[in-house]
Amino acid sequence: MSLQSSEPKMISILGATGSVGESSLDIVCSDPERYQIRALTAHRNVDKLAEAARLSKADYAAVADEASYGRLKELLSGTGIEVGAGEIGLEHAATLPADIVIGAIVGAAGIKPTMAALKAGNQLALANKETLVCAGDLVMAEARRQDLRILPVDSEHNAIFQIFDEANIDEIDEVTITASGGPFRTWAQADIEKATAEQALKHPNWDMGAKITIDSASMMNKGLEVIEAHHLYAVRQDKFKVVVHPQSIIHGMVSYSDGSVLAHLAAPDMRTPIAHCLAWPERAAAKTKRLDLIALGQMTFEAPDPVRFPCLQLALDAMKAGGNMPNIMNAANEIAVAAFLEGEITFGGIASLVEAVMTKMDGDGGLPVSSLDLVLELDQKARQLALELKS
Ligand SMILES: NC(=O)c1ccc[n+]([C@@H]2O[C@H](COP(=O)([O-])OP(=O)(O)OC[C@H]3O[C@@H](n4cnc5c(N)ncnc54)[C@H](OP(=O)(O)O)[C@@H]3O)[C@@H](O)[C@H]2O)c1
C-alpha cells in the first residue's frame, strides 16, 4: 500500500531490537517528517522493544515469546500502543498496512513473518538473508505476484541493486560479492578450527548480531549471501564470485561484456543500505559514516580459501544442489552456531556438523521448494538431526 508522498512513509520493523533493527530505528527516528513507525517486533527482549515503541511512537508492538506478553503489556500500558505476542502477533505486525516492512529477524524464524508481509502486499526491505536462502523460490514468486521489489538491506546486495543494469542483463559477465574475510582471514587452518567464541565474535569491520558475526568468521555468511544474491538477481549461478576485500569499502561489483566494471563503495555502516531502501526510489540524506579514500589509503583483494573456510564451499555446494538443500544447510548451521556459542562444539565442528546433516539429508535436499509447509518441515527435521549428531 502506498500513502501520498507528502505524508510520512509508514515503516514496520520485524526484529527491531537487533543490530539491523536498531540501525533502522536510528534512520527512521532521525527523520520524522519522512518516516513514522507502524509496528515493531522482538523475540523476547521486551524492555528494549517497549522502549523503542515508546520513543518511536509505534502503533503496535509484538513479542514472539508468548510468555513475555504480560511484561510487554505492562511496560506499554497507558501509551495507547497496542501489543501482541506469538506467531499471531508477529503476523499482525507484518501485515498491518505499511509503506515498507523491514525484515530484520535473524534466521529461519523470519520466514513466516516475511511471507506474511509480502502476502499482505507490503513492500519488503529484507536483511533476513536466511529467508531467501531457505524459501527464496517462494518469496520471489510471491513478490512477482504482488508486483513488489524485494529491496535488499544486506550491504552487498544493496550495492548490487544500485549497479545492476537489468535492461542489459545478458551483457552481465560477473556479479562480485565482497567479503571482509572475518577475524580469521590470516589464521592457519589448525588455529581456526580451535578458535574460541570470544575470538570469533570480534569482527574487524562490522558490529552485528552474534549469529551473523560467527557466520562471518566461518565465511558461511558469504555462502548464504551468494545464495541470497542468486534469488535476487536472475543471472546464472556460476556468474557469482566472492572476493575477499578486508577493508569492506567496495560492497559489490557488476562486470559487463564491454569490460566495464561498476562498483559500489561506502564506509561500512548498515545505516547506508537501510537509508537507501527506505528512501527508494528516491534518495534522502542520512547521518551515516562517510568514505574518505585518502584517509583509507589503499584497498586490497584476495581469493577466498575454501580449505580454511569449508562453510563457504558447503553453501556453494548447497546452492548447486538446489531444491531444499540450502534450507537444510541453513538449519544445520543455525544449530551448529548456537552449539558453538554454548561451548558444545569447536569452531571447526560447525562445518563438520553442517556437512554431516547435508549428507544424511541428501534425499530431502532434492525435494523442490514447493510449499512453505515443506520448507518448515525440513527445517525442523534438519535441526533435530543436527541436535542428535552434535551430542
Ligand atoms: N547486523 C548486520 O549488520 C547485518 C548485515 C546484513 C544482514 N544482516 C542480517 O539481518 C538479520 C538480522 O541480523 P542482526 O545482526 O540484526 O541480528 P540480531 O542483532 O541478533 O537481532 C535479531 C533480531 O531478531 C529477533 N529474533 C531473534 N529470534 C527470533 C525469533 N525466533 N522470532 C522472532 N524474532 C526473533 C531478535 O529479538 P530479541 O532481541 O528479542 O532476541 C532481534 O530483534 C540476519 O538475517 C542477518 O544475517 C545483518
Binned, the helix content reads 40-55%
Amino-to-carboxy terminus distance: 48 Å
What would CATH call the homologous superfamily of the domain at 9-152?
A: NAD(P)-binding Rossmann-like Domain
By DSSP (H or I, 4+ residues per run), the number of helices equals 18
CATH topology of the domain at 9-152: Rossmann fold
Can you identify the CATH class of the domain at 9-152?
Alpha Beta
Shape: globular
What structural class do you assign from the helix and strand content? alpha/beta
Q: Which CATH-level-2 architecture of the domain at 9-152?
A: 3-Layer(aba) Sandwich
- Characterize the main sheet: 7 strands, parallel
Beta-strand share of residues:
5-15%
Features:
391 residues, alpha/beta, Rossmann fold, 7-stranded parallel beta sheet, 4-stranded mixed beta sheet, 18 helices, binds NADP nicotinamide-adenine-dinucleotide phosphate
Describe the overall structure.
- The chain is an alpha/beta fold and 391 residues long.
- The chain has helices spanning 19-29, 46-56, 69-75, 86-95, 111-119, 129-146, 155-163, 189-193, 197-200, 210-218, 220-232, 271-279, 293-296, 310-321, 325-341, 347-360, 362-365, 372-390; strands spanning 9-14, 35-42, 60-63, 82-85, 100-103, 124-126, 150-152, 172-179, 240-244, 250-256, 261-265.
- The chain has a domain at 9-152: Rossmann fold (3-Layer(aba) Sandwich), CATH 3.40.50.720.
- The protein contains 18 helices and eleven strands.
- The strands form two sheets. It has a seven-stranded parallel beta sheet, sandwiched between helices. A four-stranded mixed beta sheet has the order 9-8-10-11, covered by helices on one side.
- The longest helix has 19 residues, at 372-390.
- Bound molecules: NADP nicotinamide-adenine-dinucleotide phosphate (NAP).
- The site of NADP nicotinamide-adenine-dinucleotide phosphate (NAP) has 27 residues, from helix 1, helix 6 and helix 10.
